[in-house]
UniProtKB/TrEMBL annotation:
Entry keywords, A to Z: Aspartyl protease, ATP-binding, DNA integration, DNA recombination, DNA-directed DNA polymerase, Endonuclease, Hydrolase, Magnesium, Metal-binding, Multifunctional enzyme, Nuclease, Nucleotide-binding, Nucleotidyltransferase, Protease, RNA-directed DNA polymerase, Transferase, Viral release from host cell, Virion maturation, Zinc, Zinc-finger
Domain CCHC-type: 193-206
Pfam families: Pol_BBD (PF22936), Retrotran_gag_2 (PF14223), rve (PF00665), RVT_2 (PF07727), SH3_retrovirus (PF25597)
Integrase catalytic domain: residues covered: 348-523
GO molecular function: aspartic-type endopeptidase activity; ATP binding; DNA-directed DNA polymerase activity; endonuclease activity; nucleic acid binding; RNA-directed DNA polymerase activity; zinc ion binding
Annotated function: The aspartyl protease (PR) mediates the proteolytic cleavages of the Gag and Gag-Pol polyproteins after assembly of the VLP.
Stretches assigned to coiled coil: none
A GO BP annotation: DNA recombination
Record-linked PROSITE patterns: INTEGRASE, ZF_CCHC
Database matches in Gene3D superfamilies: Ribonuclease H-like superfamily/Ribonuclease H
Organism this protein belongs to: Lasius niger (Black garden ant)
Protein name: Retrovirus-related gag-pol polyprotein
Amino acid sequence: MAETSRLPFAKLNNGNFFTWKYKMELLLIKKRVWSVINSNKPSVPATGATAGQIEAAEKWQEKDDLARATIGLMVEDNQLSLIRSKLTAKQTWNSLKDYHEKNTLGNKKLIDLGEQQLSENWRVAIILSSLPKSYDTLVTALEVRAENDLTLSLVQSKLIGEYSRRKEADMMDEDDNKSGATVLKTIDGKATCFFCQKAGHFKKNCIKYKAWLDKNPQSTKLIQESVATCSDVANGSKECVEGKGTCEVKIVNDCGDTSIATLTDVLYAPQIAGNIMSVSKLCRKGYTVIFEDNLCKIKQGNTVIAVADVVENLYKLREPEKRINGIKIMDCGIKEQCETCLKSKLTRLPFPKSSENESTSVLDLIHTDVCGPMRTRSPSGKRYMITFIDDYSKYTIIYLLNQKSEVENKLREYIALVTNKFGHKPRIIRSDRGGEYTSKSIKSYLALEGICFQYTAPFTPEQNGTAERKNRTLIEMARCLITEAELTYQFWGEAVSTANYIQNRTLTRSTNATPFELWNGYKPSIDHFQIFGNKCYVHVPQEKRHKLQNTSIQMIFVGYDENSKAYRCYDPVNRKLVISRNVRFVMKKVHSGEIELDHSRENSEGQILKEKNKEALDTNTWDRNEDQSEHEDSMLNYETAESDTSLNSSQENDTTVIQNTTERQSQRTNKGVPPNHFGEWVNVITEPKSLSEALADKNKEEWINVMKDEMASLKRNQTWELCELPKGREAISCKWIYKLKTDEKGNITRYKARLVAQGFCQKYGTDYDEVFAPVAKQTTFRILLSIASKEKMIVRHLDAKTAFLNGKLEQSIYMKQPPGFNADNEENLVCKLKKGIYGLKQAARLWNDEVHKALINIGFERSKNDNCLYTKPEGSGWCYLLVYVDDIIVAAKSNQTVVEIKNQIAEKFDIQDLGNIKYYLGIEVIKDDNGTYYLCQSNYIKRIINEFDMIDAKISNVPMETGYIRTRRDTDELLLTNNRYRKLIGCLLYISISTRPDIATSVSILSQRVSNPSQADWNESKRVLRYLKGTMMKKLALSKTNNEEFLHGYADADYAECRIDRKSNSGYVFFVNGGLVSWSCKKQPVVAQSSTEAELIALNEACNEALWLRKILADMHQSVEEATIIQEDNTSCIRLIERGCSSNRTKHVDTKYFAVSNHIKEKLIQCKQCTTEDMLADLLTKPLGTTRFQKLRDALGLYD
């Protein structure tokens, strides 16, 4: 207190900066050192300094030291961290100023206001607005006065008068209360002591109370000093203080901890009923008192040492057990607990949210537990289940037990299994303290094996929560399977086994992978999954039936066999379990009333299980393989099959399929079992789908490096700048896309990571307007290669790196920071895009605009018929450039021209030279010694065959049966889902339009049924795959020839072949330089009423294509002076066009189909008749027999 009294003013704390700042300025001015705050130390040359310069520097340093010391001594301890590292007074002053005068608009306004002189009217207004509500009458009376009369002195006099009047009224009320109390005391007769409850004296004069104080010094420890003074209290009265001393009391801080608080300078005034603490004295001693949210907090530095609650409009400090008034001024560190409470109120301690020991690899920790007994025995008599859960992978192996005594054998079996698989034993096994785990034989066995066996605390199953939760999950899923299948509870063992089988192959949130994958090291296949309880037909081996006996038996599907690639099916007639791979399924569950089940062992209550302390189920079956467990080789590598799912789809008609068109209807929206096609990607090694998968991949270093390269490219291109998100705008998300670049042989050439914006979040009109961007046509690409073959040109392939990042944005688009690459200490900022980025709706258009401008600037001219084709003069000839997004094809006669074009483009964009073209959009480009180019998609076909599990399928000579289009009906049995069919047709469609016209007819017919495919359509689509498997090495030749007909084609139609809608198919092919460059197969838009009309429609479509080909060749400066010849095999069609005569059978034909006549007259088109035998377009109108098909295929230029 003495030190505080010598200070000129209060030290700086977090609440008095502006006052402290003003006083500190005056103090520094008084000490004549204020100048150093606004100046820097005078510089003194290292050599040749004058005496005056040295003396000025020394004086400045003395003033600076004095100023810095003055400032440092006038701040509280909690402010020292702000100035401890500062070396000059100016740095110290600015540090405090920057911290307390935060650069906000509100603070600036307050500072400006504090420097202004308020007028008298302003001060009057402030005083009146700050008065309490009880003064509203006076305020109203003052405000009605004229503004000139309302002076500050008038307001002050009125307020003083009102205050005096109210104080006198309060004193009169107090006298009345005292007199009333006297009357009451007189009536009562004698006063009563509040301590001993006896009449005749007060507590302050009670002898027993004084004796109690002497005997209990620990409770109050009030050391009184002789004092004779009076103290003012809040109501204005004076109370006599009889002593002063030190008091120790128990208090509670904000965490509920009890400690001893020592109060000094405590005044003893017996007349005051309660203990009162002075807030001002606390503040003078350096403590901070905060009133907020009906709480009063007393802080010492940053630590809350006491808390008071509002009780009857007073703040009362929190106390231990009973409320004892006091305050913790000095924490002595003593923590006390009430033993009575510990005896009477002790509860179970809380469990930690996570384990202290996290597993880092398989077999670090194994959780195990026994569940049961089940009330209903399985058909094999099982009543218990034991689970073994690997803590790292969550992979679970379960065994079914007859009795708990089998636990030791199953434990030994499990340890032997995993030891053989991984080469080492489990490190820790954890279980509860059940008697089945605490036997001496188990303890001695584990001790010899060197395995640590951990037990939970007694009556604490929560410590084995992983096993307990797994049991519950298995039980609940098994219950759902049995309920949905409408089976009896005797199937609980099979249901639990199936539930565990599914869960091991289900993605877990904690690891972002399936337990099976972490356990075995590769992704599982779930393509063979079926609905539990479904009706199925199991093939009967020929050795077990006579010739007239049915080849299959109806059974119930009840799970998957772990020791073989087979299904487990229950025969309800013979009451036995059958394991077979030759199973065909009908998508209809078996109701319990359809097939008689064995109810002899089922409890009449129908309860699935009864547990003692658990809620879990069990997994085991009742045949020879009763203990069904997960092994490392137990993955069912079933081959993809049709909806009836045979286990060997490579053998057609392996098992007779029992058709059943009646589908089960269910109100449930989630059947709990994924569709078959979900498994098609599981076995295929693919690129990571997310950042977490990339970081978990074995090649994560490669992915990390390419992500860093992408980020470096983004920063180098100045794609964005970090800023705060404007109010009212939303930031779109972004994600990483990972790709493996391969060569023409399918070998990985490089890893590629692309940051893409999630453009689906963009809003039209705000984030984008136009989005269209053209791409090069496949026909144009083939024409370019055909001309390059003819002109002996060099064809070079360039790749524009990060192409979309070159487009400049016109709109303001905000994007979240890339995952895994948030800027340090700027996580709340977003990226304001300055350029296009992959994923934006307008990104492709922006890039196309940029590359177009660049090509025009270097002398190229854009084609009017294909906006991605550019031409440029080259000596006496021309060079060509084709753009397909970021793939750029350059064709020129000299290598020097190619290099010049490449360098010119590289000045504008980051270009990678891939050399002479070899691989383009998944198409292999091959050039022979004669300069002829060939196109092939063998690697793509291999991948499709592998994805659809057709590696071992039989080869077909033709892609479609001859009479298929005539035999299919709308009433054919439909597939349950069309997703898998759509995917296959999409893949086949890309092959057919790129390099394989021989499958165009088949794909065109099959694609007409993508919305409702039948089983026959699915089988036929697989036939196309089997045909491609045998011809995957076929190459389309863009041959160099001396044929005088530079451009010619064929057109044909198949009249009303489809029995469903009777529409005809049109087909045409066109050759440039003897190589096939364009073909089409499509259904006609109208129903032709004659073969002549169908041929006329096909010829019109071919004519339109021929006219476009002439234009694109003209853009490429290839002379096509003669009329383009189109071969047609229908005499009536040719006569109709040439003669223009009309008959009753043709007068209804739309006039637009006679436009070809005008083109013939203009000598643009010439129609010639050919024999049906030589009609090459016949291949594109209908399925053909093997001999005819192979002849026309070879004629189109498809060679091995």
